[in-house]
Amino acid sequence: MTDWALVFKAVSLLAAVSWTALILLPRWPALLSAILYLGIGLLCLVYATGLIGVVSGLIPNSGGGGMDFTSITGIRALFATDGGVTIGWTHYLAFDLFTGLWIARDADAKNVSRFLQAPVLLLTFLAGPLGLGIWLIAREPAARRQGRFR
To answer: How many structural domains compose the chain?
Structure first.
């Protein structure tokens, strides 16, 4: 039997450590690689294992039955289980951390102060698309100063 509460705590801790390092530590190439492969990569592995395991029936998920990803009722039924919530949470953590890493690298390339980056990264951690949207607006002047959009 899968201890979904333990998996939930583990992925949350992994993401928190990765985000803390991204926001507070110097951005050495080795650190950025560790965040990419050990942080995001492990979250992706846990997500894929959980999703494939639950959908295939190899990993028990209380309240199981057939998975329906085509309706709000089906998604609600999946998220009504500990396994579904943990898999969904891991999905959010992986994508938000990937987005935060991209923002940090983009901001560094545009010489944006780490003090200005920190609130955007924190917002991305807490509310993914909102932080990304703010960064897309905030990066415009820096991109124009450099004479390119990349």
So the answer is: 1
According to the model, what pLDDT value does residue 61 have?
74
Q: What is the pLDDT of residues 65-99, one digit of tens each?
A: 566 778 898 888 888 889 999 999 999 999 999 99
What Cα–Cα distance (Å) separates residue 73 from each residue in 26, 34, 78, 79, 126?
45, 38, 9, 10, 26
User: With b meaning 16 or more CB within 10 Å and e meaning fewer, what string describes 86-112?
Assistant: bbbbbbebbbbbbbbbebbebbeebeb
- What is the reported pLDDT for 25? 97
Which range marks the domain in which residue 109 is found?
Answer: 4-146
Q: Report the distance separating Cα 110 and Cα 16, nearest Å.
A: 26
Cβ atoms 96, 44 nearer than 8 A: no
For 58, half-sphere exposure in the C-beta direction (CA atoms, 13 angstrom radius) is 7
Interhelix angle 82-109/72-79, rounded to 10 degrees, is 100
Average confidence (pLDDT) over 15-32: 97
